[in-house]
Amino acid sequence: MATYAAPGTDGSVVSFKPRYDHYIGGEYVAPAKGQYFENPTPQTGQVFTEVARGTAEDVEKALDAAHAAAPAWGKTSVGERANILNKAADRIEANLEKIAVAESWENGKAVRETLVADIPLAIDHLRYFAGAIRAQEGHLSQIDEDTVAYHFHEPLGVVGQIIPWNFPILMAIWKLAPALAAGNAVVLKPAEQTPASIHVLMDVIGDLLPPGVLNIVNGFGVEAGKPLASSPRIRKIAFTGETTTGRLISQYASENLIPVTLELGGKSPNVFFDDVSSQNDAFYDKALEGFAMFALNQGEVCTCPSRALIQGGIYDEFLSQAVKRTEQVKQGNPLDTDTMIGAQASNDQYEKILSYIDIGRQEGAKILTGGEKADLGGDLSGGYYIQPTVFEGNNSMRIFQEEIFGPVVSVAKFSDYNDAISIANDTLYGLGAAVWSRDTNTAYRAGRDIQAGRVWVNNYHAYPAHAAFGGYKQSGIGRENHKMMLDHYQQTKNLLVSYSENAQGFF
Amino acid sequence: MTQISTSTDVTDQVPEVPGSGTTERVALSPQASELLVTLTDIHGPLMFHQSGGCCDGSAPMCYPDGEFKIGGQDVHLGDLKVEGLEKPIGFYMSASQFEYWKHTHLTVDVVKGRGSGFSVEAPEGVRFIIRSRLFSDDEWRALEGR
């Protein structure tokens, strides 16, 4: 129980610089065009720093630095790279509060989450990939008595990464840890809504990496993201965002014939079977919490459980208790460690959520709680707060089909197992899902039948580093987390070696 | 759409959605129209593609015309006429997404913000968003051709 002092006021654990340039070749470099853009905190709407507005010239400079660093970095031993990732993890751990408050201030999310989830997960992720790269082995196949096929992992070289604004630091580390562990040099563009907190991170860990191995170009998608994504000088592009930009990035990647990984969101079903309510015990309480998980990170999570499907036998009772649980979600000053839900990340995000609440009402969905903006008073009146909102409706409504990316859940009833699976899969997306049941057979079968890359069974919103994460259907291409992620940042080198002294006999 | 274009503009082959041309499916707010004139000065002729998915999803993306390759999986919802611009601005969406959106009329509006993605208005400190309303029964009958 504490409230952190706002950055820029006495006693704050973090102080942002008044301005951030690009981080290129291990040092800060002013943008070629000399332009900067303002960065507001969604907590109050006030500007707290300004950030370099990058353009193609800056991206080229970052690519120069990355290309200069990549050959030597790619040949460092895995032990050396793992040590660097481990040291970075230790440093972040030692500066946890500072980084957690920075991210909360910039993104608007509750500091409770950055302290116990975002930043600890980032730390663990670095350690996981430090371990995974050392444990990774190539393969060899004996083709015949005299011929051996050796398979080596080699880094791709220089890669581009475009980071979303919902978890500015964790999403950066999700992409950076495997890329750096595998020996790649990176040019990274943070989201324009959250460009500063990663520089607080770089203040803490920047000196651990050789110059040029990690370069950060700030700016807008059209001005900095596009030159990066369309550059013939990257060997891969990774993007988290939405479908139209995902297609555009794939289009650029096809022009350069490079691989792309995309994480494009979802409309995740959270399925509660009748037997959940068979006892009023700890598990039932856990299931109610699982319902309320839609409010985690203000709903700004690609896997937000934004469709709750509840079986008919328990529908009324479970929903009424779930609504009560939702009403206990404490909204307030994001820097107060008691606060459970903070501010939406930007004004446009806030307006978009309100526009969806409007269309939900028009379509006849019933609001069971919330449905309004929240004015928290004082300085926070300028921030972007929305009440956790529960809609009741049917799966054909737009609020059931589009990712609102806010604290809004749409609830529908299902009759039996087949009905549950049919509604759960009636969506364009397939990123996350959950099934809740005390019957292991039901839970297992539902988990396999739902078309999504991650199905939580009797839990939600857990993101351990060694569980693969990624989408089916229009939710994207490729996976994040898990050691298999290394494959997305490595080439396979096959040396096919003949140990025979004799000619092959063709000529 | 049987005419074969001699150019590479595949938008000629993109299906029209039912009713386009009679009942309007997409409109512009006055603020959006004004902004499009400014943006056309900077970027040249423009187009919209409606996004879905996370982060900045569910928002319309505005690109220089032709920058985003419209293909066989898209539909054309209409052409937005803007006073002061010679050429109307095409509005597209993926056909699968349209299936879930077809019962609503869309108005492209503008709010303050930053967006993400590669939409051209973000550097101006604003973001296009969609305001939606349900079609009236009369409009729906006209769209369905009944």
Automatic annotation (TrEMBL), chain A:
Domain of life, per UniProt, equals: Bacteria
Keywords carried by this UniProt record: Oxidoreductase
User: What residues make up the catalytic site?
Assistant: E263
Domain Aldehyde dehydrogenase, residue spans: 31-494
Matches recorded under Gene3D superfamilies: Aldehyde Dehydrogenase, Chain A, domain 1, Aldehyde Dehydrogenase, Chain A, domain 2
One Pfam family hit: Aldedh
Statement: the UniProt record of this protein carries the keyword Oxidoreductase: yes
In terms of PANTHER family, this protein maps to: ALDEHYDE DEHYDROGENASE B-RELATED
As for family, the record states: Belongs to the aldehyde dehydrogenase family.
- Protein's UniProt name: Aldehyde dehydrogenase family protein
Report the source organism: Actinomycetospora endophytica
Automatic annotation (TrEMBL), chain B:
Highest taxon in the source lineage: Bacteria
Residue span of region Disordered? 1-25
User: Cross-referenced InterPro entries, in alphabetical order?
Assistant: DUF779
Offer one Pfam family short name for this entry: DUF779
Task: Give me the stretches of Polar residues compositional bias.
Answer: 1-11
Protein name (database record)? DUF779 domain-containing protein
